[in-house]
UniProtKB/TrEMBL annotation:
Homodimer. This is Tyrosine--tRNA ligase. PROSITE patterns: AA_TRNA_LIGASE_I (PS00178), S4 (PS50889). The keyword Protein biosynthesis applies. It comes from Ohessyouella blattaphilus. The keyword RNA-binding applies. The gene is tyrS. Its EC number is 6.1.1.1. Keywords: Aminoacyl-tRNA synthetase, ATP-binding, Cytoplasm, Ligase, Nucleotide-binding, Protein biosynthesis, RNA-binding.
């Protein structure tokens, strides 16, 4: 099976322009393609997984990826799929985040000479002359067509700022620059980016002629992929300092039954034939499929050794409630008040919940236990002595465990 057909079989392709040409380029390793990454944090999260895995698949088939980080567009807001404006970031923070991205991406993409690039759109956007830009690019955009795009419709009622309105134009200009500067002939993105991506394709063809090799493709369910990055406890990051390998493993181990085969097809590198054989699995077999998914993705992000540790810990917790590799937080003197720390503070410190309000709700709903005993009092506190040595194990819900020690 060739790579384009495999992407289809894995359910990754939703919409395309110029499918025969795209198929030809991709299957023959002649595509130079880009995917954009928004540097709003210092780590990628699981919502970026689909894009990273796609880049890896295409590069292994001989195609050349460009990871475009939005150092320039990150200075303003992207209205796509959003109902609010984002916070402004300083150039220093954006650069730091971009550096972190490349380190994480290198586990998926080979940035060796002639193989892949990381490009920052700040390199051209920050130096644009406004009048020249209006004269050169502005005539190719219809305001009426822009306002009909779904990404802008969602923001119109709340109020769409002028600088956010420019986002589509800048994203289109990104593709135009990548086409001219690096021979980029294809762009990939989520279904929520379709209007912006079409604008880029049209801009190139209008300025370069209809024969320009500018093509667009979207990924099926990529907007859902972004939602994968969020849980009740906050984001699931690829950085082990933010989300431990064990928690990362548990996230995938706990996916819904209806999603496990979809995730196996889209995100793992297991042979599609092997995954198709799991279509008839149910009950305990689906749990085994989830274990396979969790192991494969943890190994991909954190390496085989960490995946084995996480798998062993999960099984140990299931059978005995205790595991050496369980995520652990070591408290310091500053964490205690008068020699004690309350359960709500411990839940927040462990990052099992994002806030004390969420911690309070979990306790009040009977969803928290310590060393197997349900916590019923939100004021329950622990002393340094109780947390010394092996510490205590907090359980939230049915499957989330965390050790707290002093």
């Amino acid at each position: 099976m060739k790579i384009y057909e495999e992407l289809q079989a894995r359910g990754l392709i939703a919409q395309v322009t110029d499918e025969p040409e795209i198929r030809e380029l991709v299957n023959n390793g002649k595509a130079t393609f880009y995917i954009g990454f928004d540097p709003t944090a210092d780590s990628l999260h699981v919502g970026h997984f689909m894009a990273l895995c796609l880049m890896k698949r295409l590069q292994e088939a001989g195609n050349k990826p460009i990871a475009l980080v939005g150092g320039g567009t990150g200075m303003i807001g992207d209205p796509s799929g959003r109902s609010d404006m984002r916070n402004m970031m300083t150039p220093e923070i954006i650069q730091h985040n971009c550096d972190c991205f490349k380190k994480q991406m290198s586990k998926f993409i080979d940035f060796g000479e002639g193989k892949a690039r990381m490009v920052n759109n700040a390199d051209w956007l920050m130096n644009l002359n406004y009048i020249e830009f209006l004269r050169d690019v502005g005539p190719h955009f219809s305001v009426n067509r822009m306002l009909s795009a779904e990404c802008y419709k969602q923001r119109m009622e709340q109020g769409l700022s002028f600088f956010e309105f420019n986002y589509m134009i800048m994203q289109a200009y990104d593709f135009f620059r990548l086409y001219n500067d690096y021979g980029c002939n294809m762009q990939f993105g989520g279904d929520d980016q379709w209007s912006n991506m079409l604008a880029g394709t049209e801009l190139i063809r209008r300025k370069q002629g209809d024969d320009a090799y500018a093509m667009t493709i979207t990924l099926l369910l990529n907007s859902e992929g972004k939602k994968m990055g969020k849980t009740q406890s906050g984001a699931v990051w690829l950085d082990p300092e933010k989300t431990s390998p064990y928690d990362f493993y548990q996230y995938w181990r706990n996916v819904a039954d209806d999603d496990v085969l979809k995730c196996l097809r889209m995100l793992t590198f297991l042979p599609i034939e092997q995954i198709n054989e799991m279509d008839s699995w149910e009950g305990a077999q689906l749990n085994r499929a989830k274990e396979i998914l969790a192991y494969e993705l943890t190994a991909l992000v954190h390496d085989e050794e960490e995946a084995k540790k996480a798998e062993a810990s999960a099984k140990a917790i299931f059978t005995s409630g205790v595991a050496a590799e369980m995520p652990t937080t070591t408290l310091t003197d500053e964490d205690f008040t008068d020699g004690e720390i309350d359960i709500l503070t411990m839940l927040v410190k462990s990052k099992m919940v994002p806030s004390k309000g969420e911690a309070r709700r979990n306790v009040q709903q009977g969803g928290v236990s310590v060393d197997g005993e349900k916590v019923e009092d939100i004021a329950k506190s622990f002393t340094k002595e109780e947390l010394s040595g092996d510490g205590v194990v907090i359980k939230k819900g049915k499957k989330n465990f965390h050790k707290m020690q002093y």
